[in-house]
Design brief:
Layout lengths: L1 E4 L7 H7 L1 H6 L36 E2 L2 E2 L8 E2 L10 E8 L11 H16 L7 E8 L5 H11 L2 E3 L25 E2 L6 H4 L14 E3 L1 H9 L1 H4 L1 E7 L2 H16 L3 E8 L8 H9 L4 E5 L2 H13 L5 E4 L6 H7 L13 E4 L11 H13 L7 H23 L3 E2 L1 H9 L25 E7 L5 E5 L13 E2 L4 E3 L16
Parallel strand pairs: 1-11, 4-15, 5-6, 5-7, 7-8, 10-11, 10-12, 12-13, 13-14
Antiparallel strand pairs: 2-3, 9-19, 14-16, 16-17, 16-18
Helix pairs in contact: 3-12, 3-13, 9-10, 10-11, 13-14
């Protein structure tokens, strides 16, 4: 297995920080979708042996996709010691980086989804009668510490967001450290292993660092057995990318393929992609997996095609983006170099929104409540977090005499199984310290016209395990290189 550095450029620390934003986009999705199913089965006991609150659906409110709305009138209150103000309002922080000076609008779709959900929910009466008041926790990419100070003093919980540099929330200081403040979170995504496998959180779309789903590799090998025999791994040389690189290598090797080479590149300062392209070609790889952002991948595949490589890119969900297609196109003759690229996703694609009401409804709510709102897969992931939070809050209220506490909400969220957020994604099993990896996936393909369409499985075919996804519980790879990095709080309840 070849291992190489494609270049000698060494970004300054500030640029390294900025480059970490790539990781946030990589973690857009992690699930598959189940229809005609109640969104939350009761769990008999928590790991600590105490009975978990039974998850129930409120009778009031309209539907979201295939689930009853978790919003409506009621008489819930927030524990005064955790309310961050009045106990008759839900003050919820939304971590984001959308006003970063180096990438304005970064992951703006999470904030827009949070605004849309809160407006939609408040119009129905709130969550058990509690109106949602959003607290903007804009970390601006490098200012997470100050955002955490606001979170500690002004929020009941954090929901529906995420920071690119989410390891910075563990400041070790009273008044700004996630654990020392006793905070709790249902995030849209996590990036670092320090956060993804920490406690005090329940992820609706689990992303543990120490294991990874292998369904995508199994499908790819079935479709393209010759190309899958030898796959190159290309990654941006940042710590957050290394975590994902480790997962990819474990998956490729675990499914019986050869890692032809591991090639890293500087996230910034890469002006000539020819040496990297030649390294990939020289490795003999029939396919390539890439960890990075769409523009760089577009430039790389364009260079590879110019150098005569005929292999197939097998890409992460963040390449489900017109930016990738556009950046790969030849300016002179319009050659669609991205055509034939294969992309994995755990969410139903926007092209099939007519078949999946929750996907259509998410888009409609953002359009309705957020002028110039950004619609993207990470926005759907944020919506999933909000729906899980509201569902868990109702269950907590039922079990705790109408009083919400952070611990109670987390325990109720942990009691949810087969979570699809009304049909936004495939079933997941939200759980503590990252939860188990989802075991369903689908593949999309870039067409010659530069659009995206379903590649595998065909809807309704024998290979379609569940609502257009292939599911395999045994397709999970262990990643020892990423184990033991979660930051755990001694006083967290779960």
């Amino acid at each position: 297995m070849a291992e190489s550095n494609a270049g000698t450029h060494h970004p300054e620390r500030g640029l390294l920080r900025w480059g970490a934003l790539v990781a946030a986009v990589l973690l857009v999705a992690c699930s598959c979708a189940a229809r005609n199913k109640v969104e939350g089965a009761a769990q008999e006991e928590t790991p600590g042996g105490t009975a978990a609150p039974e998850v129930s659906q409120p009778s009031a409110g309209e539907a979201f996709g295939e689930m009853e709305s978790p919003c409506g009138e009621g008489d819930l209150t927030v524990d005064p010691s955790e309310a961050a103000g009045s106990s008759d309002v839900l003050r919820i922080g939304v971590p984001n980086d959308r006003t970063s000076q180096v990438r304005n609008g970064l992951n703006k779709e999470m904030w827009d989804a949070s605004v849309a959900f809160s407006e939609w929910c408040n119009a129905q009466g709130g969550i058990g009668g509690l109106q949602i008041e959003l607290v903007d926790l804009d970390g601006k990419l490098t200012d997470v510490g100050n955002a955490m100070t606001t979170a500690c003093s002004s929020t009941f919980m954090m929901v529906g967001g995420g920071w690119v540099q989410d390891d910075l929330q563990f400041t070790g200081k009273d008044g700004s450290d996630f654990h020392l403040c006793g905070l709790a979170e249902i995030p849209a995504f996590t990036t670092s292993p320090q956060k993804s496998e920490s406690n005090g959180q329940i992820q609706p779309v689990p992303h543990p660092a120490s294991e990874a789903t292998a369904v995508w590799m199994r499908m790819f090998a079935d479709l393209y057995p010759e190309q899958a025999e030898s796959m190159a791994e290309v990654w941006g040389d940042l710590p957050a990318m290394e975590t994902i690189r480790n997962q990819d290598i474990a998956v490729i090797e675990g499914e019986g393929s050869e890692v032809a080479g591991v090639f890293d590149y500087p996230v910034f300062g890469m002006t000539d992609w020819t040496p990297l392209a030649q390294q990939v070609i020289g490795s003999g790889a029939g396919s390539m997996h890439y960890v990075g952002e769409p523009t760089n991948m577009g430039t790389l595949i364009k260079t590879l095609r110019e150098q005569g490589w005929e292999g197939i890119p097998m890409l992460e969900t963040n390449m489900y983006d017109p930016t990738y297609v556009d950046s790969a196109q030849n300016a002179s003759d319009g050659t669609p170099n991205a055509a034939g690229s294969v992309i994995r996703t755990f969410f139903h694609p926007f092209e099939e929104a007519a078949d999946w009401p929750a996907v259509q409804q998410y888009q409609e709510l953002v359009d309705q409540y957020v002028p110039d709102g950004k619609i993207a897969l990470l926005g759907m992931q944020s919506f999933s977090a909000w729906l899980l939070f509201a569902t868990a809050a109702n269950a907590c209220g039922d079990a705790n005499d109408g009083v919400l506490t952070r611990a109670c909400v987390l325990e109720a969220a942990d009691g949810v199984d087969d979570w699809t957020a009304g049909g936004l994604h495939s079933p997941t099993d939200p759980g503590p310290e990252g939860g188990p990896s989802p075991t369903c996936d689908m593949l999309l393909e870039v067409t010659d016209e530069g659009t995206f369409e379903r590649l595998y499985p065909e809807l309704g075919s024998e290979e379609d395990s569940l609502d257009g996804f292939v599911c395999a519980e045994d397709a999970v790879a262990e990643v020892p290189a990423n184990e033991g990095k979660g930051v755990l709080g001694e006083d967290q309840p779960i």
